[in-house]
TrEMBL record:
InterPro entries: Ca-dependent_lectin. This is Uncharacterized protein. One of its GO terms (cellular component) is extracellular space. It comes from Mytilus coruscus. It comes from the Eukaryota.
Length: 166
């Protein structure tokens, strides 16, 4: 059951002191109060996909680059727990798959930190939002062997993910 639909928000990728997490902003916000004109604030920007032909994971639709990221908050009726499992596309026994996707995060050389997000393979974008604003950015995650053991992982592959409920 969908509780809200909206767009992804977060800090700009060059702001090292801003928040690190992605948030799902509703399409029907309630207006806040105007703020005084100075720069002593944290900032909230929209998110956009940084997926181009050279880094496009298999299964993610083409032409999503620079489009603004849509999101939804959902409730699984009768379920009490949910978990995002990176590196898998199926849930463990006793769990129900909500969706499968590709693990994404910010770019390693950008100043602002990010967090991993499991982005549904059926990516959605905000209508009319395909301008390159360079705000909160989503890049596919790729594996690097070394301290990450290969096997069982493989070098330079995208990372699958699944969201499961119970």
């Amino acid at each position: 059951m969908t509780l809200q639909q909206g767009q992804v928000g977060g800090a700009q990728h060059i702001h090292s002191g801003d928040s690190v997490n992605y948030i799902c902003l509703p399409n029907d916000p309630e207006a806040g109060n105007p703020l005084k004109s100075h720069n002593n604030y944290a900032y909230l920007y929209g998110g956009e996909y940084e997926i181009f032909p050279y880094n496009q994971p298999q299964g993610i639709r083409a032409g999503i680059a620079q489009h603004d990221v849509a999101c939804a908050a959902c409730l699984a009726k009768g379920k009490t727990s949910s978990i995002m499992i990176p590196g898998r596309k199926t849930c463990y026994k006793g769990w129900t798959k909500a969706y499968e996707g590709i693990l994404m995060a910010g770019f390693k050389n950008h100043a602002a930190a990010s967090e991993y997000a499991c982005v549904d393979k059926a990516t959605e974008a905000i209508a009319g939002g395909s301008k390159d604003e360079n705000a909160k950015l989503f890049y596919p995650v790729k594996t690097v062997c070394g301290s990450l053991k290969c096997p069982p992982y493989k070098q330079d592959t995208d990372v699958l993910c699944v969201v499961c409920t119970k």
